[in-house]
Amino acid sequence: MNRLANLPVFLRLAGAKAVLAGGGEPAAWKAELLAAAGAHLHLFAPDPCERLRDVAERLGLAIHERAWREADLEGALIALLEAPDETEATRFRAAARAAGALVNVIDRPKFCDFSFGSIVERSPLVIAVSTDGAAPVFAQAVRARIEAMFPDALRAWAEAARAWRPRLAGFDQGRRRAIWLDFADRAFACLDRAPDEADFAALSQARRPGRFIVVGTGAGREEDMTLRAVRALQAADHVIMDGPVPARLRDLGRREASFEACPEGAGPAVRAAAAERVESGETVVAVVPGDGRGTAWEGAEIAPGVSP
To answer: Is residue 57 part of a domain?
Structure first.
């Protein structure tokens, strides 16, 4: 995996104490965001702007019209500040960390333990986009593209996924993955309606057949891989690096997939185990040198690694 500028995480704030100090427009937006996440929000603003007052009134929040104090941070999970200067930011960060809270000083990255991404909200499906502050407008443009790809109608399917998950607990892991893959296909095919019990019945009874796919590496450069080859890797439950192929191509696939390196070539035992996986309903991908054609894997689908 390439180096990450930040580790993307999602905080569960429902019922947790959050402190927000500041009275300007940026603080008003953060207050709305924290309240939407269910935080028990404590607002401190000696001179709150009109928008912050409107947000507080609409959401039923109380504003303490005074400066924050160290004691206000006790028990907070996260603490945010709209700082007038670095002296205030330094003091706030030290006090919040002493209280055990994660810190965000708005628009002052060097004082932040975490940052806010550009959000696509289809809750419970939430997608966050970040450029680590390098290009916020670019992040917003990417978010707009994603919003077009994932219309608001997807919200009903995400709600159904949350409701149905406990009902699928009795299935084994491989079967559950197959069901959720079918669920995703069905959701994107039926965005004109909400899911119903007929969808659940069909999903719980259907069986996804196993697949075996051979991906050719071409010259071994990620940029040369065909879209079909990348999609095969991203769908894999198990990846076999069959022969002298670049290990970095593994990063194109699912991080959750199991992985097997056979630099001298896959032997009979590996092939037999792969066949058993396919028989049980898994998707197995063998990554081989060349374009993938003329493979020794019998009966495999071919996803050429380079365009013909």
So the answer is: yes
Q: Six-digit token pair at 246?
A: 């670049």
Given pLDDT bands bounded at 50, 70 and 90, which one contains residue 298?
Answer: low
The count of structural domains within the chain is: 3
Instruction: Give me 1's structure tokens.
Output: 């995996």
Residue recorded with tokens 């670019």: 138
Can you give the pLDDT at residue 295? 65
Listed residues 92, 116, 140: the one ending a domain: 116
The answer to whether residues 270 and 264 touch, using CB atoms and an 8 Å cutoff, is no
Q: Domain end: 146, 181, 205, which one?
A: 205
| 172 in the same domain as 111 | no
Please tell me the pTM assigned to this model: 0.69
Sign, CA dihedral 58-62-67-69, equals negative
DSSP H helices in the chain: 25-36, 50-59, 86-98, 136-149, 154-164, 173-189, 197-205, 227-234, 268-279
CA 141, 144, 145, 146 torsion: positive or negative?
positive
Shared domain for 231 and 189, answered yes or no, is no
Burial zone of 3 (CB within 10 Å; 0-12 exposed, 13-18 middle, 19+ buried)? exposed
Mean pLDDT score of the chain, rounded to an integer? 88
Q: How far is CA 186 from CA 91, 178, 191, in A?
A: 52, 12, 9
Least Cα distance to 106 among 30, 192, 208 occurs for 30
Cα–Cα distance for residue pair 259/239, rounded to 1 Å: 5
pLDDT of residue 299: 64
Spacing of C-alpha 251 from chain mean position = 16
Terminus-to-terminus CA distance in the chain, angstroms?
28
- Position 138 in a domain: no
Give the side-chain half-sphere CA count within 13 A for 107: 11
Q: Structural domain of residue 215, as residue ranges?
A: 211-303
